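Dear support,

I submitted the protein below through the web form. The confirmation email said the job was done, but the results page showed an empty box. After a refresh the structure appeared. I'm attaching both so you can tell me whether what I see now is the final result or a partial one.
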Amino acid sequence: MRQNFPGLIAWTLFLVGLGAAGVWLVILGKGGGDGVVISGVIALVCLVAAGVTWFAIRLLLHNDPMNPEVLQDEEEVYLKRRRDKRRRRAQGKEGAADGEPV
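What the results page shows now:
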């Protein structure tokens, strides 16, 4: 199946940015210091990078960044693998992979 690595990277950046924004707010509430600037910049950079990545996926790849469509050829590969796995189980070769001796 096709992997959605750009979407995964954008989601990870979003979560890191969200966490850094929370840390930024806590440090800001306690009186500030050097940590305010560092965590604020990290939050801003990660959130902007995640947004730009999601926007690029949507516009350039014409795909939903969080839940990509399954293409016809991907579905055929998946169904073939499922049929092969069921056939091996029926023959008693449950643990055998393609091309491995049992």
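Response: this is the final, complete result; the empty box was a page-load delay. The radius of gyration is 22 Å.
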